[in-house]
Every structure is written in structure tokens, then in C-alpha cells.
Amino acid sequence: MDYLENRELSWLKFNKRVLEEASDPGTPLLERISFSAIYQSNLDEFFMVRVGNITDACKSDKNKKDSRSGMTPAQQLDAIFTAVRRLQPAVEKAFRKNAEELSGCGFQHITFDTASAEELAFLELYFKREIKPFISGLVINDALPFPFLKNKEIYAAVQLGAKKGVAIGIIPIKQDHSQRIIPLSQDGKRFILEEEVVLRFAHLMFKGYKVIDRALIRVTRSAGIMAFGRGPEFRTRMEELVLKRTKLAPVRLEVSDEFSREALDYICKKLKIRNSRVFTSHIPLDVSYLFELQELDKSPELHYEPRSPRKSASLSDTRPVFAQVKAKDILLSYPFESMTATFIRLLQESAVDPKVTSIKITLYRLARNSKVIDALCTAAENGKEVLVMIELRARFDEANNIEWSKVLQEAGVNVIYGPREFKAHSKLLLITRKAQGGAVEYVTQIGTGNYNEKTSAIYTDLMLLTADKAIAEDAKAVFSGLLSGNFVEEAQKLLVSPLALRPQVLAMMDEQIALARNGEEGYIAAKVNSLCDKVIMDKLVEASQAGVKIELVVRGICCLIPGVPGFTENITVRSIVGRFLEHSRIFIFGKDGRGQKIYIGSADYMSRNTIRRVEVAAPIEDERLKKRIRGMFRILMADNVKAREMLSDGTYVHVQRKDGDEPLNAQEYFYDEAYKRLEDKAKRQERMKENRAKGAAKTSTKKKTAAKKPAARGRKKASGK
Description:
Layout: H1 7-21, H2 29-60, H3 73-103, E1 108-109, H4 117-131, E2 138-140, E3 154-160, E4 167-172, E5 181-183, E6 190-193, H5 194-200, E7 211-221, H6 232-245, E8 250-256, H7 261-271, E9 278-281, H8 290-293, H9 321-327, E10 330-334, H10 340-352, E11 356-363, H11 371-381, E12 385-390, H12 398-410, E13 414-416, E14 423-424, E15 428-434, E16 440-447, E17 459-466, H13 469-484, E18 495-497, H14 502-517, E19 523-528, H15 534-546, E20 549-554, E21 571-576, E22 581-582, E23 586-589, E24 597-601, H16 607-610, E25 613-619, H17 623-638, E26 643-646, E27 652-654, H18 666-720
Parallel strand pairs: 1-6, 8-9, 11-12, 12-13, 14-25, 17-22, 19-20, 20-21
Antiparallel strand pairs: 2-4, 3-4, 3-7, 5-6, 7-8, 10-17, 11-15, 15-16, 16-17, 18-25, 19-23, 21-26, 23-24, 24-25, 26-27
């Protein structure tokens, strides 16, 4: 269908938008280079997960077609590899252009052609003293086994002269004690990479052999692991799978520059990988070192303007958070408002509050030094009932979560692992407290992002704190289901997948369709990370055909193409890629007004979220907060700095500013707004303080006057007598 696109190709378009940030002159230089590293990191994960899964599908069900594009697994792989190769020139161009600009700031990534004679002598000595004693060169031929190449590690590969057949030399680069960036100047800005030094002197590792050709290689392996289970044995099974992952099949081989075809074919044969999966790069195979360069120069013009999360202007520092949420719903917006100052504070206060009886929470991704874990352990040690559903299958965080589950259990926390065959991706917290007279009160938190202090400073997310009893009852039902392995089939207010989210979303879309068909104004809006749920996309097409106006802000995958006549002409799609990773999810049904419904939650419009995971979305019912979210969405739709718009051919273009339009960067706007709200609060408090002081002064004056007047009247009376 002309209005649907393949999921994988849509993701590659998203990563292209990331790459474009590496070439954006409006982005400070040392921030710009980080986008090259992010692009590569994203692509690595894409090959490990998506290409790995599709490769498996080629073996298990090679004729099964993608429901959106009609492509078989093999056709998808061909299209992926073609798209990645087409992007490579832009990757290398951005890298070189930024390297050229960096040279103007004193940074010089030298080569053996540009190094001075003194540096050449130093590097040879450095190799012999600091590298060679700790590495080994492995000779491989048909009589010798091929070594295991670790995932994403760099190796030097050399073709060796052989009397018969092909002989290859492999040198592992990574050493536990070594540094990848070898500084050649006092400030470290003039440097060379360790793998380049090893490659240069590789011949010294193979005495008695003639080195015919040499190159650096890097293997990417599949990371597709999945386990099903619930009990204590499940964690043991996950630990085994995490170890197994490192040895899964290769899905990509990268090689630096040109390498002997004979040697490359030999390596592919040994790795059991096709030549179609070999990708040549003329820049470093791993550009993650670019992040380190950011620390070598603190010049303000080379970095983003320093920003730090603000305290929420909605909260007081002098009253417990629980009490303030009882008074009114609180909405927090990260990274503009501080997670530590509100959410962590709520947990810490609850952990020591003698009236708090229980804390229940779902955990998906956590910081390495998690204050959330600290607070939960403190609560358990203080005798409170603490239930933690920790998802051990959170991709690439499995090992971290396994270790945290052990820490929690040792502290006396009741740890569970969720449904047997479904990941629990919800961001849900329920705190129960006994009030005076024995009454029970609750605070429920529903968020769009993880309980991770680190990512809360770089991801945009929303969090609702509410004392609504109906929402608390729904949350209790979610935790009860997680304990029993069952799913919530019906809720009062929350949307809960896998059974009670998508049907409700479709029903609210139907309401807007009915309005449009009756000649009224229908409106649907959403901000999500991905859109590829075919059922939801079909409903959006139906809504567009009925005349409903649909506005979508989709950061990453978007398989629905807008503006296609007869199908999606009433749909607009925007993507914002900038300083912070857009991660919040907002669902809006209906135009502004009392009938409008707004939700925030953890689910994207992907079938894996809507019908194959436990997700939770909460209604925003407080009119103050609804107004705030409407305003946020309008700003996102007005962004003309970092926003791209998808055209009817599936391509993305930067939103063009009209004559007279001021630049509007939504992320910077929200930070400015957070600063301003706090400043306005401080001003209000100062005025109140001044008014109280004035009031106290007036009261004091009146008292003094009143004290004098009776004495005067008394004297008059006395003289009258």
C-alpha cells in the first residue's frame, strides 16, 4: 500500500536524521561529533537486534511477508544493506568535515603520513614497550582453527604469504590496561588511535612471514535472546542467556579501507557470513572515542549552553511530596524538571514515613548507582511491604537488572519478574499510607520514561503524580496481575495493555470519526517514539478519510506515510531530533474543551507495546495540566529548528521558517520555560514576603496608635471633671 512503509527502512530514515545532526552548523562542534558516534551506536544495535531477528526469520519462515511492505525477510535484508551502503558516504563526509573544523580548534587526529619524525620514533617505541608485550598474533590457515572474534571489538587482520592456500594473521586490539586514544601532545588534542598503531606494526607480530596486505576488521553479532519464565529459576536462565549472547552468529563484518579480496573471502568463509554483509569504511570502525574528545576542550562555543533540571515550580520544599499530591495532581517534565527533587524525594520520604505501609513499583531500566534502589531497600529495611516487578529481559540491561534484583532481595524486597511471555514495560508506582483515623490514602505515579536518574537528564519524558483513588485501584489491579501472571481486562481509568489499551484507543478514535461524519470537528494527536501497529494505522487512515485532523509527532519509526490522496491527506507527521532524545508519549483525542481526552504513558503505537507487553497510560484530568500538555504539543508542532516533516513520498525535510518567523527550538523553549516558572515562583514568594512584612508593619503601627488613643481620651475626661 502506498501509505505504508517497511519498519526497518523507516528506522534507517530515523538514523539518517540523527546523522544530519552531525552536519548541522547550528549545533556546536564538539556536540556535533557526538551525533556521528550516536549514529554508529544506533546502527550497531539495529544490526544486533533487527537484522539478527530478520536473519533468523530467513531460516524459520523465509516466505512470511511483512504486513506493511509485503517484503519477505530476504528482501528486507537486501533493502537494509542497500540503504546502509547508500548512507556511508554521508557518514564519512560528516566525519571528515568535523575533523577539519576540529583542526582549527587544535585537534589533530594524525596518521603515519602526517606524523613528525619524532612522533614516528615515539610510536614505534610505544608499540614495542606498551602494546606488543600484551597482545598476540594468531596465524590461521586451513590446518588451524579460526579464533572467536568478539562482538564489536576491533582486530587487525593481515594476509600472510603462504606456500599453499591462504594464511591470515589476527591481532586482538583491546587490552584491559590500554588506552585507545594515544596522546601526542600535552593537552591530548594531537593523537592517534591504538588500532592504527597496531596495524602499522602488525608485521612485527609475525616474524618469518611476509605481510601481503593488512586492514582492521570489526564483527557485529546477533543479540536476539529471549527467555520465558516467572520463578526463581528464571533469573538463572537469564544469566545463562546473557553469557550466550556474546557468542551468537555474526550478522555484519566491517573492514577498514580496501583489503585483499582473497583474504576477505577467507575470513567470511570462516565466520560463515556472506559477502553481502561486508561493509567497508574509510573512517575509524568505532567512533565512540569522539565522546572523549568533548572533555579535552571546555570552550563554551564548542558545547551546548549548560542546562540543569530545575525544581518543579508546582512543589514546595517545606511540605512532604505525598501531602502536596493529595492536594492536587502534579505533572513533571524531564529533563527540564528534576527527577531527584521530586520523584526520588517522594520515594525517600515514603521509605521513612511511619504511616506508609507499602510501596509497589515496576522497574525496566535503572542507573548504575540508583537512588531508586537505595530508597526501596531503605523502605524494606524499615519494615514496609515493598513489591518490585523488575524486568530481566530489558534489552542490553539484563545483566544490570539481574544484579539489582539480587540487591533488592537481600534487603528484604519482594521481587517478581512479571508475566511469563510478556515484558512489563510500564512505569508505575503505588504508595499506600494510613492516615489519621485509619483511612487509607494513595499516591500513584505513571510515567513515560524509566526510573533512571542518568537518562532523565537527557530524555524528554512526562510523569503524573496523583491521589485519585480510582487510578490507585487500577494500579492495584495491575500489580495483582503481575503477581499472579494474569492481565487486567478492564480498568476504571488507566489504559493497560495487553488487553485494555488498544481497544480503548481505537474506541476514542472512533468517537472522533463519528464527530467528523456528523459534520463536527474531529481531532486526533499523538506523540510517540514509534508508529507501526497496523491496526492503529488502519484506524488512523479511516479517521483521515472521514475528515478527522490528525497531528503526529513520531521521533523514530513511522510506517504510516501522510499526505497520500484518498488515504492520509488529513495526517501530518513530524519528527524532532535534537539535543535531547524525545521519549515522552502523549495521546490526545478531541479538540480543546471539556470533552477532550489526554493520556500519557509508556506505550508506543507498536504492536509489541499495545498487545505484547504490559504497558500503562493514565488520563490527565486536571484542567491545569491538560492546558499545559496542550501547550507543549502546540510548541512541538511549531518547532522550526529541529523538526522535520514527512512528505507524501516518505522522505523527511526540515520544517521551513516562513518570512518573519522567529526560530523556535521546542527543547530549548521548554528549558527556558522551566527556568522562568521557577523564577516567577521566587518572585511571587518574595512579593508575599514583602507584603507580609508590610502587613506586619501596618499592624504594629495600628497597635501603637491604638495604645496611645485611650490615654489621650482618659486625660480629656479627667480635665472635663
